[in-house]
Design brief:
The complex is a heterodimer of chains A (888) and B (301).
Chain A (H helix, E strand, L loop, with lengths): L1 H44 L15 E12 L5 E12 L10 E7 L16 H4 L4 E7 L16 E2 L8 E3 L23 E2 L2 H7 L12 E3 L2 E2 L5 E2 L24 E3 L7 E6 L17 E7 L13 H7 L28 H4 L3 E5 L16 E6 L4 H12 L6 E6 L2 H9 L5 E4 L9 E17 L12 E2 L1 H8 L10 H6 L14 H6 L21 E2 L6 H11 L2 H7 L38 H4 L4 H6 L5 H10 L5 E6 L6 E5 L9 E7 H6 L6 E3 L5 E2 L3 H8 L15 H6 L7 E9 L5 H14 L27 H16 L13 E2 L4 E2 L3 H4 L18 H5 L10 H9 L1 H25 L1
Parallel strand pairs in A: 7-8, 15-16, 15-17, 19-24, 20-23
Antiparallel strand pairs in A: 1-2, 2-3, 3-12, 4-5, 4-11, 4-13, 6-8, 9-10, 13-14, 17-26, 18-23, 18-26, 21-22, 24-25, 27-28
Chain B lengths: L10 H8 L17 H48 L12 E7 L4 E7 L3 H4 L4 E2 L10 E6 L20 E6 L2 E12 L10 E11 L2 E13 L26 H21 L5 H25 L6
Parallel strand pairs in B: 2-3, 4-7
Antiparallel strand pairs in B: 1-2, 1-5, 3-4, 5-6, 6-8, 7-8
Helix pairs in contact in B: 1-5, 2-5, 4-5
Classes of the chains: A alpha+beta (888), B alpha+beta (301).
């Protein structure tokens, strides 16, 4: 009895367990995020600033180069295989950690034997004529050869076979020693040489003329050489390895039969890869090596077979997928560092942004703290240094928080305002100043089956989103018992890619019988979403609610192909800020861990998380959130549920609810959403601006709430558009702090709306709010609210000129309180701060009204001398009094 | 009437002693309060006693309290360090977090968490929104320069190059002093881990300005497990802690009640009994009052 009671309790907790865990994760993530921001800030604070950022604004890169390979026929005649390759990249300056650069090329020799997983170790040897893309430290334009880029300063993730050249002399596979461009040193039989070999590579036999070896060490930023050789592969850079946290960023990309190709290359800064050490002080480059093959010399003495192999061209048909057919090793990526290939490289210099935050000291300065919308963190990262860097400004802190919680916190006295899209409840009247124009996005990472590359354009309609959210795809093949228990799902496809409606919208993916469709069925039944309430979910579900077809589906009408909604979600009311995990059903007849610790099946499918930035990260690293399998913790009987494993490049299929800003930063493609006019609209500046024109606020100081019905009806407006407002109290704030709040709004809507990559500017993914054009109404509303916040009269509509603010420049002049809190440290001794009114600067302690802390402090300062004085006076005075008395 | 020169419980005991031969007689009438000189004298004496006690306790006796707190904290920290339960992240204010040693000053102090005036009565305080010493980032310690043992009275005499050693749960960390900074001086350059000691300059028993001693960590910093996002005004530099006001009122109330009680009993009990009964209560009341009043002083004094 007791035993069964326990089981009951245990299984009853199943549904809640997921929620609780994510709840805890929320806080942990929030803390980790904040700590992370501070860490990044401090790390980059250590980096000298300025030098690189002074250059011109970010511009694309484009370079054309003729790449060649000399092929020698048996009779000794040499023909030249020549291609003119043009490489272009979209962003090369002010790059931030993990920012993704899109590199495109044309004119390269088409690849063959294409392996889907372009970052795996196999890709280095499998594909003929690939394009190797690496991040390297150095400056190819430097006059000093040591400062230039060498293969030794190029980062590869494994530090294994891709960093060593070898072969068997008798078989003639030591191609690199017959490279006509190789120097004598590069042709050495053994690198490292004999005398160093035992020290560096003990346990491994050294190279010889018969079996030569050349190991290409990785030279770290601090000069350490990592050879990665010997018995245990010793000498490995800390960031190297098979399963590192960030995954590989070196890629062996391929060229299509048209000669074009694309690589989404993730740039790593010293913060992510200290060994590589790219920073604003250490120049780096992304090196593109179109592999043409080794240009062999005539040194094959009496080895006609070897000479033929060395001069071989690709054996497989261009554009073919990987197969076990023979291939020409001389044209694969394993010889990327051999001189003939290396000289064909195209170098894209990259400049890492000087900092995320250069604030040297925030001690004793006034802080302006906003909590709320996850949409703003991208902008905030770039804004914050522009505030705390200037002595006449304040310290700006913006942290993600659930909007509803942020409103509660504000009411409880935490923070100075809330960032939100929708209105929230509050004790004090709030003014909503628009400070950001962006939106939610459905990000995706999907590979076109059959080596077709990454999908760039995806169409979705509200009904497909509703199907994903309501867990109406099965996510796996059901057993007969499960089929019996879930008649509502009987006719439903296993996942999105098996849904005829989805295939009709995306013909590129209308392929059957692909081997990996089954393995991605679980992850492609999920729109990776949020476990916490969020304005993002409200906006997404409002879009679904505005579509009659989608609502008919949710309310129980089957779609034209017979698919029905999951019974647990049937009739759910939309919109919802907090999407529930409504289906407690568990798979029947399960065994092992699945029976001991049953998690409801559709909780495993939906598996929401608390942080949309994490979802963007998941897309970037191709790690779905779905809970894939159970496992026993080694040496114990305890079961644990595991996330689905990382998906291979070439076989990825994931969708996630992310922010437009994250999509831009990580170059994640975003889905085009259908409007009721029948068009598919992607988030662009134009489509977001078009959406803003359809928004009106409820009155002065009220938020610009996206009206889903109007947005979805427009043929050109992006339905996911969201305005982020700074909701600021209109009464009860002390004047100094109110001036800070007002100046934040003015700065954020003036210099903070200049698109760019510099600190203080507006990141990609946000549409600038300007005084003219489509966003004029937002701008005007922000200025009105700023004035009202400064006035603190309790309402926006009240009259009265803005005090002390020059509204034409948006630069507040009354910032004494903003610059320094009068009650703290360094403000105690006044000093002239440039840009401040003289008398204000001279007397920052002047009380504004009543007893200010500073006045109190001045009084307390003399407390001890005063106490002494009183005692002394009494000691003298009382006997005097007595004597006076006695004398009478 | 020479009684008024006596400070505590001044009127009654002396009166009793003079009249002790006839203890059972009804209470003699108090001197008429209508005499303005007497009222003035009593008032002045009361204020003088309180003020004198305040100075005595903050500057002199506070050192005793503080050194006792240090002893208790020191053994608590030792125990935690040994058991490896000493904190690495957020801690309750008032708990010990680190041992601070400055060999050139002969200073050894246990650092407590929190920088409110009450926390700093026990020893130097770690500002809660900064990382712990040894961790990556700018760690800030506050200490008093004049009252309650004045642990930081001489830190402004530190010279560049002097060593500061801090022991926390994460190990021993050595900092090298970079310089002493006052308002208006340029802020220090950026480093990965810094320790700043904050106190005030003292000029004729008056604090004259905040002084910062910046030190840079030698070696590699460690990573902490989190900290408070912000601290209230009372924990910032020169913040005062009004949280002790209720207890201050209680202390003054105890004093008043004792004096009234003694006055009420005088004549019914012999003087030395009254002294024996009254004095400890008065001292306890004064002690409580002084401690709480001291919290109204800015935390760095």
């Amino acid at each position: 009895m007791r035993g069964s009671g326990k089981v009951m309790r245990g299984s009853g907790k199943g549904t809640r367990a997921v929620k609780t865990r994510t709840g805890r994760r929320t806080r942990k993530n929030a803390r980790r995020f904040v700590t992370g921001l501070l860490l990044i800030g401090l790390l980059s604070a250590a980096v000298p600033s300025g030098a690189v950022s002074a250059q011109a604004a970010a511009a694309g890169f484009s370079q054309t180069k003729t790449v060649t390979r000399e092929i020698m026929a048996e009779d000794g005649t040499v023909t030249v295989d020549e291609r003119t390759v043009t490489v272009s990249a979209d962003v090369t300056e002010d790059l931030r950690g993990r920012q993704v650069m899109t590199i495109r090329w044309s004119g390269a020799r088409p690849s063959s034997g294409i392996l889907g997983s372009i970052t795996s170790l196999d890709a280095w040897t499998a594909t003929e004529y690939p394009v190797v893309v690496l991040q390297c430290r150095g400056d190819d334009s430097a006059s000093e050869p040591a400062a230039r880029i060498r293969p030794e300063t190029c980062w590869t993730s494994y530090g294994a076979s891709e960093r060593r050249l070898s072969g068997v002399a008798l078989a003639g596979t030591d191609f690199y020693r017959h490279d006509r461009y190789a120097t004598e040193a590069e042709r050495a039989a053994s690198v490292p040489a004999d005398e160093d070999w035992t020290r560096l590579c003990s346990g491994e036999s050294e190279g010889s003329d018969a079996m030569p070896k050349r190991i290409i060490p990785f030279v770290a930023a601090d000069g350490t050489e990592y050879w990665r050789c010997g018995e245990e592969g010793q000498g490995r850079a800390p960031e190297m390895g098979v399963d590192t946290a960030l995954g590989p960023n070196d890629t062996v990309a391929f060229t299509t039969t048209a000669g074009t190709g694309v690589s989404y290359f993730e740039v790593r800064t010293a913060a992510e890869n200290a060994s590589l050490g790219c920073s604003s002080a250490v120049p780096c480059a992304v090196v593109v090596v179109p592999i043409m093959g080794i240009s062999c010399d005539a040194s094959f003495d009496a080895q006609p077979l070897a000479a033929q192999r060395c001069n071989q061209e690709g054996l497989r048909p261009p554009g073919s997928s990987f197969s076990n057919e023979p291939y020409a090793a001389a044209v694969t990526a394993q010889y990327w560092a051999s001189a003939s290939n290396w000289r064909n490289r195209i170098t894209i210099p990259v400049a890492v942004a000087p900092s995320a935050a250069i604030c040297t000291s925030t001690e004793g300065r006034r802080t302006f703290q906003l909590y709320g919308s996850v949409l703003m963190s991208g902008a905030a990262e770039q804004w914050a240094p522009a505030y705390c860097d200037r002595p006449d400004r304040f310290v700006l802190r913006i942290n993600d928080q659930v909007e509803a919680t942020a409103f509660n916190s504000l009411a409880a006295g935490y923070g100075n305002g809330v960032l939100a899209t929708y209105a929230g409840s509050s004790a004090a009247p709030l003014g909503y100043a628009p400070v950001g124009l962006t939106g939610f996005a459905v990000g995706f990472v999907i590979d076109i089956p059959g080596g077709g590359g990454q999908l760039g354009q995806l169409n979705l309609n509200p009904r497909l989103l509703a199907k994903l959210l309501t867990a109406s795809y099965r996510g796996a093949s059901f057993s007969p018992a499960a089929e019996d228990e879930r008649p509502d799902l009987a006719g439903n496809p296993g996942s999105l890619q098996l849904d005829p409606e989805f295939r009709a919208l995306n013909p590129d993916l209308d392929v059957s019988g692909i081997f990996y469709w089954d393995s991605t069925q679980l992850s492609f039944s999920q729109l990776m979403g949020l476990s916490v309430p969020s304005d993002l979910m409200t906006a997404l579900t409002s879009y679904i609610a505005a579509d009659p077809e989608a609502m008919a589906f949710v309310n129980g009408t089957p779609d034209p192909w017979g698919m029905r909604v999951n019974r647990a979600y049937e009739g759910i009311s939309l919109p919802q800020a907090d999407w529930p995990l409504a289906d407690p059903w568990t798979q029947p007849n399960s065994t092992g861990c699945a029976a001991e610790q049953p998690i409801p099946w559709f909780n495993r499918v939906l598996a929401p998380v608390s942080d949309p930035h994490r979802l963007a990260d998941d897309l970037l690293t191709a790690r779905p959130e779905t809970i894939n399998m159970y496992d026993r913790i080694p040496h114990s009987e305890v079961c644990r549920a595991d996330r689905s494993p990382r998906q291979n490049h070439g076989a990825r299929a994931m969708l996630a609810l992310i922010t437009v800003a994250d999509a831009r930063r990580y170059a994640l493609p975003t889905a085009s959403l259908r409007t009721t006019s029948g068009t598919y609209v992607a988030p662009t500046d134009t489509s977001i601006a078009a959406a803003v024109e359809l928004m009106v606020s409820g009155g002065p100081g009220e938020p610009f709430v996206p009206d889903a019905d109007r947005l979805i009806a427009s043929a050109t407006a992006y339905p996911g558009t969201m305005v982020v407002h700074a909701a600021l109290p209109l009464s009860g704030v002390e004047p100094d702090q109110a001036a800070v709040a007002a100046s934040f709004v003015r700065i954020a809507t003036s210099e903070g709306q200049v698109r760019g990559t510099k600190t203080g500017q507006l990141a990609e993914g946000y549409v600038p709010i300007t005084a003219t054009g489509a966003t004029a109404s937002l701008y005007a509303a922000a200025q009105t609210v700023a004035d009202a916040v400064e006035r603190q009269s309790g309402s926006v509509s009240g009259s009265g000129a803005p005090s002390g603010a020059d509204s034409t420049t948006g630069q507040p002049t009354d910032l004494v309180g903003a610059a320094e809190s009068p009650s703290v440290g360094e403000a105690a001794e006044p000093e002239a701060v440039p840009g401040l009114p003289a008398e204000e600067a001279a007397s920052p302690v002047a009380p504004r009204r009543g007893l200010t802390p500073q006045a109190l402090l001045n009084a307390l300062r003399a407390a001890i001398p005063a106490g002494l004085a009183v005692t002394a006076a009494a000691a003298v005075g009382v006997p005097t009094l007595r004597r006076f008395r006695v004398g009478r | 009437m020479t009684v008024t020169t006596r400070p505590a419980g001044p009127v009654a005991p002396r009166a009793v002693r003079r009249r002790s031969p006839a203890p059972r007689r009804p209470r003699p009438p108090l001197p008429p309060l209508s005499d303005p000189r007497l009222v003035a004298t009593v008032a002045v004496v009361t204020v003088a006693v309180l003020a004198g006690w305040f100075v005595l306790q903050t500057v002199a006796l506070g050192g005793l309290t503080q050194s006792r707190s240090q002893n208790v904290l020191h053994s608590a920290l030792r125990e935690q360090l040994e058991a490896q339960t000493a904190p690495t992240g957020t801690v309750e204010p008032g708990d010990p977090v680190a041992l601070l040693t400055i060999p050139t000053l002969g200073l050894e102090q246990v650092v407590v968490e929190g920088t409110a005036s009450s926390d700093l009565q026990a020893g130097p305080g770690h500002r809660r929104d900064t990382p712990l010493p040894g961790q990556r980032g700018a760690s800030v310690l506050y200490g008093r320069s004049l009252t309650w043992g004045a642990p930081f009275r001489s830190v402004s005499t530190l010279l560049p190059g002097d060593g500061i050693q801090v022991t926390t749960a994460q190990g021993e960390f050595v900092y090298r002093v970079e310089g002493v900074r006052r308002a208006g001086d340029p802020l220090p350059g950026t480093t990965t881990a810094r320790l700043t000691l904050v106190t005030t300059d003292v000029d004729r028993f008056m604090p004259s300005g905040v002084v910062y001693v910046d030190a840079v960590l030698l070696g590699d910093p460690v990573v902490g497990t989190g900290r408070a996002l912000a601290v209230p005004e009372s924990e910032k530099a020169l913040g005062t802690d009004p949280g002790g006001l209720p207890l201050l009122a209680v202390g003054l109330g105890v004093l008043l009640a004792t004096v009234l009680g003694v006055v009420r009993l005088h004549g019914t009990l012999p003087a030395r009994v009254l002294w024996t009964l009254g004095l400890p209560v008065v001292l306890a009341g004064l002690w409580l009052t002084g401690t709480q009043a001291g919290q109204l002083l800015p935390n760095l004094f």
